Amino acid sequence: MNLDFISRRAEIVKGIRTFFDGRGFLEVETPVRIAAPAPECHIDCPPVATGGFLRASPELQMKKLLAAGLGKIYQIGPCFRDGEKGSRHSPEFTMIEWYRRNADYLDIARDLESLLAALVASHRPPIIRLSVRDAYRDYAGWDPWTEFDQDRFDFDMATTIEPKLKEIGGGIFLMDYPVQAASLAKLHTPPAAGRRPPATSAQRWEFYWNGMELANCFTELCDEDEQRRRFAVSREERKALGEADYPPDEEFFSSLGRIGSAAGVALGVDRLVMVLTGAGDISSVRVGE
User: Fold this and answer.
1) Domains plus CATH for the chain?
2) Which pairs count as long-range contacts for 270-273, CB under 8 Å and 24+ apart, including other chains?
3) Is 122's pLDDT higher than 80?
4) Which three-class secondary structure state does DSSP give residue 267?
5) What is the pLDDT of residue 136?
6) Using 50, 70 and 90 to split pLDDT, how confident is the model at 190?
7) Which of 137, 166, 205, 261 is most buried, judged by most C-beta within 10 A?
């Protein structure tokens, strides 16, 4: 723990709140202990002895608030993941998520660019956009759209794509993922012949700053039947890997049809503080780590 980093962290979090409050977002607080996490592969929520799980994300609960009628919301709070510990990972970490009705992932990208401009008065790195398909074709030598393999996709992301993003440097939006890698995202509509992105792309981006993954965004899937189908697939994948099964969140499913359209993003506050302060380890920017 470094007190200079902790003081700077407080300033950054204050700046985040000032940014969203000034743009008409409502700050909300949802439960940390939940009954039914989203069944995502390789993301494990710690079980609670008295029942339920500690959340890996407040996403499902925040979408219920969109369905109830809120239009622009954000939340800063603790999240938890089993088995994650390292210089960039902690089993407990702080996340900000924000959601907007009647918006898509490009609107949220503009939000993030504006947030970074507000937090970094000078020396903000240039920001570019790179498609996932081009990244894999150019740097990993294969096309996940024609021969998708989840293990290969994840391995090459960690060992090839992310090191290349660090080499390029600056801010990079990695745009438009294969549908198999975005279970909560809306798909692109079929494009005109010969144009990209292909129909099997999901409206998802991840944002990297000098090779550090900071944020993950979707245009939200708001179709109950399709979301049920995708979560059923994810649950089967988790079972095949020996990971815990999570019960379905029926309230979440039934709320999707009332949202209409929306987009949202999860941004790691600890990692944002790391890149803004130059801290080399997540434990330096968290009290008590």
Assistant:
1) 3-285 (3.30.930.10)
2) 270/90, 270/93, 270/94, 271/88, 271/212, 271/213, 271/214, 272/12, 272/214, 273/5, 273/8, 273/9, 273/12
3) no
4) strand
5) 96
6) low
7) 205
